[in-house]
Amino acid sequence: MRFGVKYCGGCNPRYQRGEFLKMISRHFQNRVDFELAKEDTLYDGLLVLGGCSNCCPDYRHFQTKTPPILVWDQDHFNQVTSQIESRLAKAREK
Questions:
Q1: Sequence-ordered list of residues with C-beta below 8 angstroms from that of 40, at least 6 positions apart, any chain
Q2: What's the rounded Cα separation, in Å, for the pair 2 and 78?
Q3: Which domain range does residue 47 map to?
Q4: Which of 15, 55, 66, 87 fits a disulfide with 50 by CB distance 3.0 to 4.6 angstroms?
Q5: Where are the alpha helices (DSSP H) in the chain?
Q6: 65 pLDDT band (50/70/90 cuts)?
Q7: Is this prediction's pTM over 0.90?
Q8: Using CA atoms, how far apart are residues 50 and 7, in angstroms rounded to an integer?
Q9: Could you tell me what percent of the chain has a pLDDT over 70?
Q10: 49 burial type by CB count under 10 A (0-12 exposed, 13-18 middle, 19+ buried)
Q11: How many domains does the chain fold into?
Q12: What is the dihedral of CA 24, 82, 9, 1, to 10 degrees?
């Protein structure tokens, strides 16, 4: 599975977004590839890493097979991993 990653501009980060992505990437090692999102690529999913509760990055121009996952707090780790695990399970069923 392939996920694009879109970061906010970082004007008011309340947590280390890069470290959060490293934790997510380690959790899904060899199962999900994460890369900086490109406009001309179709992704299985999109991880939008906002630095605060505004979660303001514009992601409408990215192409995804599933709805984006929005993150604005490091406490979202369990929610994010659960959502991605669910998408992996659905992909295996196909």
A1: none
A2: 19
A3: 2-93
A4: 55
A5: 17-27, 77-93
A6: very high
A7: yes
A8: 6
A9: 100
A10: buried
A11: 1
A12: 70
Residue 76 has what pLDDT? 96
Strand-pairing partners, residue 63, are 42
For 82, how many CA atoms within 13 A lie in the half-sphere containing its CB?
5
| Helix, strand, or coil (residue 7) | strand
Q: Tokens standing for 37? A: 């999102």
Task: Count CA within 13 A, CB hemisphere, residue 76.
Answer: 23
The residue with tokens 């490091």 is 74
The per-residue pLDDT for range 4-26, each reduced to its tens digit, is: 999 999 998 899 999 999 999 99
Buried b / exposed e over 17-29, threshold 16 CB at 10 Å, is: beebbeebeeebe
